């Protein structure tokens, strides 16, 4: 099977006395085990690499700056990551590249298209159940305190949790599929295979 290139914006992590850039290894393992080649994207290189990509993944991370979508203050956010991901969404849409969002990725995609976020009404740390549009119930891993408040009008809802948090969204026309949970933790191949159907 031909390997596809998936672009992922890198993050900065505080490590003792210095900053470290990269992503958690579990993401690399998850995507590479699905026959994808991961390409790390930065503000300095994305314009040179975007045309070689088959798709884009926006993965988990810290909060998006709340001032982008409302007047609330965000105590801790990464300005460069927010900027990079907004630029990458724009570039991917222009090139008709499929976009896969995980956790923060779902949130920033909803914000990009005009949606908003809110504090989650209950704890979504660790395993919990979600209900798909097909009425199938599945157990997922979550680590987040924000969730979708107003859903951007281009998205349809594919799954919700028991407390009505939106867990999966899709824009078929633009080939965007995003989830609020973390499939890379337990290697949930169902969602990545669904996303990769956009590439076939």
Q: How would you describe this structure to a colleague?
A:
The model has no long low-confidence stretch (mean pLDDT 91). The chain has helices at 25-32, 46-49, 79-94, 104-112, 189-196, and strands spanning 4-9, 11-15, 18-22, 36-41, 55-58, 99-102, 117-132, 137-148, 156-161, 166-171, 176-179. The strands form two sheets. It has a nine-stranded mixed beta sheet, sandwiched between helices. Strands 2-3 form a two-stranded antiparallel ribbon. With 200 residues, it is an alpha/beta fold. The chain is built from five helices and eleven strands, in the order βββαβαβαβαβββββα.
What is this structure's SSE topology?
Layout lengths: L3 E6 L1 E5 L2 E5 L2 H8 L3 E6 L4 H4 L5 E4 L20 H16 L4 E4 L1 H9 L4 E16 L4 E12 L7 E6 L4 E6 L4 E4 L9 H8 L4
Parallel strand pairs: 1-4, 1-5, 5-6, 6-11
Antiparallel strand pairs: 2-3, 7-8, 7-9, 9-10, 10-11
List keywords for this structure.
200 residues, alpha/beta, two-stranded antiparallel ribbon
Task: Give the helix proportion (percent range).
Answer: 10-25%
Cα distance spanning the termini: 11 Å
**Structural class designation:** alpha/beta
Shape: globular
Count every beta strand, where a strand is a DSSP E run of 2 or more residues: 11
Order of helices and strands: EEEHEHEHEHEEEEEH
Radius of gyration from CA coordinates: 16 Å
Question: Strand-residue fraction?
Answer: 35-45%
If you average the pLDDT, what whole number results? 91
Total of helices: 5
Quaternary structure annotation: single chain
Would you identify the regions where 5 or more consecutive residues have pLDDT less than 50?
none
How is the main sheet built?
9 strands, mixed
Sheet with the most strands: spatial strand order: 4-1-5-6-11-10-9-7-8
